[in-house]
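note to self — DONT lose this again. spent like an hour looking for the file last time. sequence + predicted structure for the chain T wanted, 286 res
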Amino acid sequence: MTAEVLRYSAFTESPDGGNPAGVVLDARGLSDARMLTLAAEVGYSETAFLSPRPGGDGATREYDVRYFSAEAEVPFCGHATIATAVALAERDGAGDLVFHIGAGPVPVRTSRDATGGVSAALTSVMPRVDDVAPGDVQTALGLLGWLADELDPALPPNVAYAGARHLILAARSRERLAQLDYDFAGLKAFMLDRDLTTVDLVWRENEDTYHARNPFPVGGVVEDPATGAAAAAFGAYLRALGLVALPATITIHQGDDMRRPSRLTVDIPADRPEITVTGRAVRIPA
């Protein structure tokens, strides 16, 4: 079966920035093997595959969504969600969507601004934050080539989840974050053993501005230039550890060190547990 694959870059206003994603708006009839093959042919960190759900309340369109990297299916992908929602808005008009993933429903709202650009805001599944064993932190640091005293003690290591699991490690300096040269095979094995989708490396510029890098060897790529799932998980982390005054909105700069600048807006509410991540997306010319 043939399938049309669209290409969008998420969390940017330029095709040269952000994180590219493949989008298949109608994946009905595609086998798992075919989806994995298509994702590998596209060559991006993830490709989203949609199957429209019948019915709904009339105002909200609903889809079953699966995400594949070039090597395996992943439980959730934020940048591919944003890219897919924008693609749907450009085709069908802006409005409310629900993406059904393995962990539950993900509401997405799309809107068009005065310039004609389309943005999307996804609301995560129920997040959680778990402790991480000190031995695992030391192992991860060794694989990354980091020293323990290069961590920011104000942002302790944890594993955060908002659809996928991410190990959060905070650098003490922007210089430390800028230097990324890690043991690809070793970190991949470590992450697979602990069901981690990325390692979320962050640096706090100020109380509402952060910089991030996300090694993604389990997806077959060295680094993700924008990671919406990790951004949602990080928002849950900040709230769980009492590191922000609620409600809060933070900006995450990612991809700058890859020359693919991305901007992710994270809303951390006080009245509900779910986290909202918002960004633009643009079509990548063929």
